[in-house]
Each structure stands twice: as C-alpha cells, then as structure tokens.
C-alpha cells in the first residue's frame, strides 16, 4: 500500500462526534447523526419492540438476562480490577479527573 492511499483520522474540527473530543462538549445531548439500529429487515433474536426500545434509549435492558450469582461474580471481579494500583496511569485506564478513581 502506498502512502498516497492512507488517510488521516478526522481532525478535532471535523469529528462528527464531539463527545469523543478532549474538551467538554458545549451541550449535554446531541442529536444522533446515524440510526442506532441497522438491518431491521434481517432476521435476528430481537423483537420489533426491543429494537424500537434500543433505538429510542440507546441500550437494551433484559430483566433476568443474568442470574444474581453471575452479577455478583462480575461485580466482584470488576472491583478487583478497579483496585489494582498497577492499572493506574496506564494508557488503557480512564480515571475521574478530580478523584483519580478508575
């Protein structure tokens, strides 16, 4: 591949998603520029109601999807990861600006 075919990532001025920028966006909510649900006409495991809910809210909540034992195990594992000091100040770690919590 030649250098002519390479493209640079979008600049700060042209990024269509201002929430990805380093500075705080000037408004808390932005109108979506793209549909969140694609391929509605294709067969899949979700009902039309679930797709509509996801498109409106941006997430899908399924009561009982995980058993309480699974949730507790995942929560404990997450707590262990968040308390690992060797994860602080790493390129993959995101911390709160004021408290420095992971």
TrEMBL record:
Superkingdom of origin: Bacteria
Compositionally biased tracts (Polar residues): 1-16
Region span, Disordered: 1-25
Protein name: Ectoine hydroxylase
């Amino acid at each position: 591949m030649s250098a002519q075919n390479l493209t640079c990532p979008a600049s700060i001025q042209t990024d269509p998603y201002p929430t990805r920028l380093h500075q705080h966006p000037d408004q808390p909510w932005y109108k979506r520029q793209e549909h969140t649900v694609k391929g509605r006409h294709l067969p899949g495991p979700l009902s039309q109601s679930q797709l509509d809910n996801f498109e409106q809210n941006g997430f899908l909540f399924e009561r009982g999807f995980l058993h309480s034992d699974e949730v507790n195990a995942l929560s404990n594992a997450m707590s262990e990861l968040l308390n690992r000091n060797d994860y602080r100040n790493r390129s993959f770690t995101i911390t709160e600006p004021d408290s420095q919590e992971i």
